């Protein structure tokens, strides 16, 4: 391990330069967003270097920097490396015969929008501050915005206000004379500055090994451009993905969407991480309906239907599956629960209704395709509460009954006998709610109804097989 005096000593000279001005919003970004990540030493070092960059350009010794900051050389070096790592500083060195000189080039911090939409820095800040403080800090950078789409643009153009120069004025100075000496070898004009950019050591992730794991039949290699490659390095570093894990996420994104971007890859990796670490299958399935979405919160049920609503709201999908099977739920069933809650954003209570809906009418089987179709339909309907889910299920039952009755009148017979398909139905889907029963083992024969044509065909075929 390199000790600090092998990299820099107090007599080493340094100079500071910055290609942009540090505005008030930049200072707020540095204080509120960068400081929690790099710490007070590095933050103070950046502000000190910035002050020196705006004063004179004389070379100084690092001893001078130690005197101003009252930091040890070890602390200065540590703070410098943090600034370099987070993209706020570039360091150049030059060895002369007897001395060593450093050039510190300050980089401008990201704008608030760039910072909070960056999938790297924003995650680190979230982990440092916690959810509540993170949201509070983020909201402090928001400004009112009015949509101008309903307004008429009446902005004046340059040619409407200013007149063209007279030919004699144009001839007095040509462009090369106007711009002469604007910038020289050792002097430059101030600009808005260049934004700091994070860079990761590529040795930390075997990109080629990942590429070799990707099937070219699924993902063409040309889609892995330089921008996506940089994002892959960052995501692999943040979420500690191995090449084979990253290859799977890339293939999942491309297979499901037909394209791959930094944003949809980030969402896929985040979903994978929650699934594998923070919210594994059992933990996710153990969640219950959020209190604000509970219709029976703090109330005693007075009817059988209210008892069932309270049951769906109080138990977790894991417990509901246990009640059905009497054993630990299978992993394949828990994955379907995770799909409903993660991919389709269904609440635990609504997921319970869906599970009960399908299990009761499908011979205690959770068909993957059926679960996916119904959950996506309910997600599009923005169903969040148990009563909403039960009402939608009843409505679909009614639609299907009307359709089936019409079909029965048209065809007349099933296998030579006029009858309705026999598929079991949950009690709470029956027309007369006063006769509902909480028990799921005493359901009567009826028809399970869905609005999609594919579900109708499936049910008709299931009914014929059940005879």
From TrEMBL:
<feature type="domain" description="Replicative helicase loading/DNA remodeling protein DnaB N-terminal winged helix">
    <location>
        <begin position="10"/>
        <end position="270"/>
    </location>
</feature>
<feature type="domain" description="DnaB/C C-terminal">
    <location>
        <begin position="319"/>
        <end position="391"/>
    </location>
</feature>
<dbReference type="Pfam" id="PF07261">
    <property type="entry name" value="DnaB_2"/>
</dbReference>
<protein>
    <submittedName>
        <fullName>Replication initiation and membrane attachment protein</fullName>
    </submittedName>
</protein>
<feature type="compositionally biased region" description="Polar residues">
    <location>
        <begin position="434"/>
        <end position="446"/>
    </location>
</feature>
<feature type="region of interest" description="Disordered">
    <location>
        <begin position="410"/>
        <end position="450"/>
    </location>
</feature>
<feature type="compositionally biased region" description="Polar residues">
    <location>
        <begin position="412"/>
        <end position="422"/>
    </location>
</feature>
<dbReference type="Pfam" id="PF25888">
    <property type="entry name" value="WHD_DnaB"/>
</dbReference>
<dbReference type="InterPro" id="IPR006343">
    <property type="entry name" value="DnaB/C_C"/>
</dbReference>
<dbReference type="InterPro" id="IPR058660">
    <property type="entry name" value="WHD_DnaB"/>
</dbReference>
<comment type="similarity">
    <text>Belongs to the DnaB/DnaD family.</text>
</comment>
